[in-house]
């Protein structure tokens, strides 16, 4: 009889083949589920699924434009809505890490031309959406210059800074202007050089227009095309692989320190968002990161769960408001709970 160790290679091969077959089965199940959702008119977009550190699925479903003249590809870039605010939030904390500003600094320190309210608003207020600033006037603002003019005219805040939560885009706008003021760079240059390049992001585009190639164009259920209107600038658009690189860069603290990440993750109150959406840390590590965003007819979702080494990325250019439902369906398949996938 041969010693047992002679049989180990075949056992290892069988175990590996069984694992590969299981993973292939999961990929097929997730694909079938998303195909079903696409056929039912509930999803037109791109998906990336990583589970237990293994990339299971990277795929496109549907079309890149209202005319259905071009099928989506996994290289297409999408607007990711509010998730793009992570770039300015992380940029602020990068400058904090470098000692170039503090979260306790008041806006008036950098913009003395603003009215007296700027002396009561801190950088932390901007990160936690507790500044009391009014929202961007979307009806009249067409450019950054228009919005800055409106801010110069503000004489009174909606509430005392740090006392209430009010999620609005003037907090984001001010974060981007602070980055420009302190770094001496335009915001898009800062994003490209200080964030995208170190994270290994290769195909991102900032503030695309109608002529930008490999861009998923937004449309509605009546196949009406929507213009790419962005009254304020600074919106980073990603493809699937670059989106995953961004998530991985955050999780491994490639851009900002664990201490800065923890500070950025602290909400004003339970259920309120920070610049990272919902980001949970334990023992110096990110354990969960969930953030969704909406822009025009786009919607995106990033969901990371450390316990399963799982990342789910969903991006659509025909928003149905169901990205959380789709992610839940994918997770239920990954967790092998068929009763919840109905």
Tell me about this structure.
- This protein is of the alpha+beta class.
- Helices cover 35% and strands 15% of the residues.
- It has nine helices and eight strands.
- The chain has helices spanning 8-39, 85-97, 123-128, 144-153, 169-183, 187-199, 240-251, 258-264, 323-334, and strands at 45-51, 54-61, 205-206, 236-237, 278-282, 285-295, 298-305, 310-316.
- The strands form two sheets. It has a six-stranded antiparallel sheet, sandwiched between helices. Strands 3-4 form a two-stranded antiparallel ribbon.
- A hairpin with a 2-residue loop joins strand 6 and strand 7.
- Helix 2 crosses helix 6.
- The chain is globular, with a radius of gyration of 22 Å.
- The relative contact order is 0.17.
- Mean pLDDT is 92; it is low at 1-22.
Helical amount among residues, as a percent range? 25-40%
Which residue ranges are poorly predicted, with pLDDT under 50 across at least 5 consecutive positions? 1-22
Question: What's the alpha carbon Rg, rounded to whole Å?
Answer: 22 Å
Strand order of the largest sheet: 2-1-8-7-6-5
Distance between the termini: 52 Å
Indicate the structural class.
Answer: alpha+beta
Q: Give me the number of helical elements.
A: 9
Regarding quaternary structure, what we see is: single chain
The rough form would be described as: globular
Strand count:
8
Mean pLDDT: 92
Order of helices and strands: HEEHHHHHEEHHEEEEH
Strand content bin: 5-15%
